[in-house]
Design goal:
Blueprint (H helix, E strand, L loop, with lengths): L1 E2 L2 E2 H9 L3 H7 L5 H16 L20 H15 L7 H4 L3 H12 L2
Helix pairs in contact: 3-4, 3-6
């Protein structure tokens, strides 16, 4: 459920304290391997892919199955996973998984 203060899950985290993912994102404890793994997992979940399926990191997201609604879903999941809001145009600004991951590396300074 979304509202003016974000998703229910995010508000619940605010009320009950942030999980370790918040602490790691704020003190830069994520590694590049962890970010790659998280983003790959989220992409597979949104697209309904199996773990064994390969994802072309350099293919445009629209070519691997993302439309505007799925792009927003992935943006929401990335925002929730890293406990950081992102623009609704995140996946249009960074149209490949490689560019998206690089954006995460730059944001987390890793």
């Amino acid at each position: 459920v979304n509202g003016p203060w974000g998703s229910f899950t995010f508000r619940r985290r605010l009320h009950h304290g942030f999980p370790t993912v918040f602490s790691r994102s704020r003190n830069l404890g994520f590694s590049r391997v962890a970010v790659n793994s998280i983003v790959d997992r989220l992409v597979r979940e949104v697209l309904g892919m199996d773990e064994a399926e390969d994802i072309d990191e350099f293919a445009p997201l629209r070519d691997i199955g993302f439309d505007s609604m799925l792009s927003l879903e992935l943006r929401n999941r990335i925002s929730e996973e890293f406990v950081e809001p992102f623009s609704a145009t995140l996946l249009f600004d960074y149209p490949t998984l490689s560019l998206l991951k690089k954006k995460r590396f730059d944001t987390l300074d890793i």
